[in-house]
Predict the 3D structure of the following.
Amino acid sequence: MTNPTNEKIDWLTICNIEDIAKNTGVCADFNGKQVAIFHIKAASESGGSEVKAVCNLDPFAGSNVLSRGLITEKDKQYFIASPLLKQEFCLETGQCQQDESVLIPTYNARINDGLVQLAEA
Amino acid sequence: MSDTKRASKQKVVVVGNGMVGHHFIEQLVKNHGDDYQVVTFGEESRLAYDRVMLTSYFTGNTADDLAMTTPEAYDEQGVEYYVNAQVTEIDRTNKTLQTATGQKISYDKLVLATGSFPFVPPVPGKDQPNIHVYRTLDDLDEIAESAKSSKIGVVIGGGLLGLEAANAIKQLGLQTHVVEFAPRLMAVQLDQDGGDLLRRKIEDLGVCVHTGKNTTEIIAGENCRYRMNFADGSFLETDTIVFSAGIRPQDALARSSALALGERGGIAINDQCLTNDEDIYAIGECALWDNKIFGLIAPGYAMAKAAVSHLTGGEKQFTGADMSTKLKLLGVEVGSIGDAHGNTPDSQSYSFVDSSAGVYKKIVVSSDSKILLGAVLVGDTSDYGQWLQLILNKIELAQPPEYLLLPEIEGDFTNAASGVDALPATAQICSCYDVTKEDICCAVRDGAQDIAAVKSCTSAGTGCGGCVPLVTQVLNSELEKAGVTVNNDLCRHFAYSRVELFDIIRVKQIKTFEALLAECGQGDGCEICKPAAANMLASLWNDHVLTEELVGLQDTNDNYLGNMQKDGTYSVVPRIPGGEITPDHLILIGEIAKEYNLYTKITGGQRIDLFGAQLHELPLIWKAMVDAGLETGHAYGKSLRTVKSCVGSTWCRYGVQDSTSMAILLEKRYRGVRSPHKVKLGVSGCARECAEAQSKDFGVIATDNGWNLYVGGNGGMRPRHADLFASDIDDETLLRYIDIIYMFYVRTGERLQRTSVWLENLEGGLDYLKDVVINDKLSINDELLTQMSHLIDTYECEWKATINDPKKLKRFNHFINSDRLDEKVIFTTERQQIRPAEKKDLVTI
């Protein structure tokens, strides 16, 4: 469970990376919280996978749907577009692109030996 | 304005409710409705209808389609109207009118828009049954009635209207003849060579033309009902005769009230359209201006506007009108502009003949060859708009005149653009709605950036449609000047339009988004290009949308094969082809809805929508559906939705074809085909149109002889009546046409563009589409048909495939690592069914 280089972080294993189709998301039960995890596999790079995580709640609709959104890219930054009204949230910062005042929680996520793991930010 | 004038409304009475009378009323009510009380009398049983489109009454348009207004609309505008009401007397001293039924009414201002009546030469025997004129819808009903007991029909008159009438008779299935007194057809508009070519083309269509024939009498025939004897001793037998030998101004009322008339009839008017009585205007075909009668619609409208202007204190005048015409007669394009006969002293003419293509063009130029004066076009009128502007605005020719006649060299757009730029701001581009170049430029400056937007804000091109190519040129030139590079790039990841990308995918056989990015894109894609690419890949290769390579591209609904609702639950819609469903399936759907506690609602497309399904329930619900023989309805896809139908001839006592079977056939044929946007069809079993097919992308309406096909209709946010594409076609032709148009739309439509907007933006419009589909102008029909059969052959129910694939099923769970449900999905009850709970509900719970 622990990472030798970063002893303080508690990583929780969620699933295998193969369980998340590339460039889609899933919703994880993370200690009772709903977290949306995205499997990003850039087309241009040489095929490396990475994972990003934000809360699953769409703050505009009040519904738990962000994991079912569409991943978008702009200037090498990744965003998740809500499946409901398409507001975009930065997967690094949680910043909403259409409304400056809206910021959603983000989580630490990593792929460790083929396992997708989550930790509090 | 003085107080006295404002105090009481002036009473304006319009005698005649044809197109021009109605246009006057519209113009007056639109801007000055509060200042006038408007009353109108019409002799016909209907309010104003589109007489220009009269012939289309035989090819599918109903009286309602042709109507220019309705009793409800007049009521709403406060217009008092009387139909079947003939005004018989004007008392100019007391300013009152009297009708044939004795009704009396006063007026402050009177407008005579009594139109014209068909001229019938005094041939002995003309007043017998089955001999008609061609002017009103009632005339057409009578002609249709005669046709039922006729084999042969003759039109007397080879002018513009005569050829229209011949077309109508041909549509009714009669062996058709045209008899003309002059030595050629359309003698007023065409020269001998043009007339000869028109004759050849019309005869190729199976219409017999007899020129130089003077009918002396109509007597009983031996093989047919009648025999027409001609002055040269020849004769012709026929069952039905239609006189279309010109029109005469309907000036009887003016005559009896002693208004000034012309020597050969017509109510004399001045530039304000006033008669010699300053309280009486005359407009349209009954009016005589500068000793001329104007038998076209555009001058009539211009008179209506001048009269409204004078009445309301404006300064617009009627200063004559250009009598150039362009039309399609019996499928042959004909145009005549300005001095077509070269009557101007010292004028010179040039002509171009392409007998293999059946094209004749002649131009008449001034003696110094600098100014175009007139032109004749037969077989190809694409130059009409450009040349008309050159003539009307007396623009000096940039090149020797013969250059005008040379076939356009491909890619040479500079000429066209400079042509439009040379036009003055006041140049009238659309004569139907009097739209000038400046009006279009204004609309573009105010934000209209495509032809559909220009049409909707200026009305240009929405009448006869002849000016659309020119409007497009003005639009493009204006956009270019404004520095708007018309950027069709799909998004920041692809510097190509959808149409270009579609071709790249097709030609290079690209099967994945990664391959497309590698071929011609950059970055990783976004909410625009990903679903667009997924859609195009599906249109071409038809792979399951949830395969590993494609799933990440799908938009919200395709992503889980359901329509996501605001709380993250989905609605489920099984396909019910043609709206036909067995009681067993109805019961099954009800049982499923009960088992999963779903909200049920009947959709507008004759099917059933089940709401409130959660992610994990979708496969269970669909398994039950698929096991019972139901399949996905693609309510979530940019694809065929429904084919709405009525019960048709199977049950209905009015039905003439089996519309339900046709609807089911069509729905099963096109199910699953993905396109730039959703596609809806409708099939009606008779002209009553209970399936509302004319509001669909493809509308099919039964006729006695087959089907009429309509395209480009839309309901919803931007309603549009579909255009009639083909009449009386058989099943096989119907499927072939829809196959081709559908695939052509798939190939050339913009992202999220419905067929209605696509058709409006299609350069060349409906005629171009017909040329592509019916004449295979682009030689791509075989390819389009092959592509469509590939889609039809590779159809599979996406849900059936999904429930049989454990890998795909894994995604249908709210949590990847838990069987918990989403605690935010909470329902409450309303009218005995569930609905998503709102905040206020949660407080009370």
Notes: The first strand of chain B starts at residue 10 and ends at 15. Residues 731-748 of chain B form the longest helix (18 residues).
